[in-house]
Amino acid sequence: MISTFSGYAKQKPSVTELTKLLDKPALLNWANKQGLQGIDINVSRKKYQSDGTSIHKQIEDFHILKTPFLNPEHEANYLKFIEDKEIIYIEQKVETDWFTGRLDCVLKFGDKRYIVDYKSNQSGVYLENKLQLVAYSMALHCDSFAIVSVPDFKFIEVSIPDRKPYIEIIKALSIVYQNKKIIE
């Protein structure tokens, strides 16, 4: 039986560090497309990451400090998105024996409690998305999962009927991560 690594770990990995261990064929295709268009993927990635960080911060500031969004259209999209939802947590830190993390949002919609991850211009759901959502559910209870594509705030419900295989992958990635740290 696989056990936790807490006995020899100096620092737990984040959920993001764990998912970085995975092969991401969609990312490779995106990078190839960028290259064929003459776009430096490092510049493009920084822009996507910066845009994503900015929208996360704007959502958090909107709730905590009542600060308006930089773009009024994004704020209007967000207000429409949350009009029938109850926000329970925004940017909540989580921790288990296997990882640490910071989830984007927990909300109540209808009779379900969702763990939500905001993603820039997301159209599909990938393995790493499901792993990230299930990982957060190891720390906080939820009934279901969703990705919200920003800045349009499109709600994409993520179906994960059996969380167990994803939980086992997260645990295995944690062990791989820790052992890599030992031998590096």
Order of strands, main sheet, comes to 1-2-3-4-5
Share of residues in strands: 15-25%
Poorly predicted regions: 1-9
How many strands, what sense, and barrel or not for the largest sheet? 5 strands, mixed
End-to-end Cα distance: 25 Å
The string of secondary-structure elements, in order, is HHHHEEEHEEH
The total of helices stands at 6
Domain count: 1
Number of strands: 5
Q: What is the overall pLDDT average?
A: 86
Radius of gyration computed on alpha carbons: 17 Å
Percent of residues in helices: 40-55%
Instruction: Determine the structural class based on helices, strands and strand pairing.
Output: alpha+beta
> How would you describe the shape?
globular
Secondary-structure map with pairings?
Layout: H1 15-19, H2 25-36, H3 41-64, H4 72-82, E1 85-95, E2 100-109, E3 112-120, H5 127-137, E4 144-150, E5 154-158, H6 164-183
Parallel strand pairs: 3-4
Antiparallel strand pairs: 1-2, 2-3, 4-5
Helix pairs in contact: 5-6
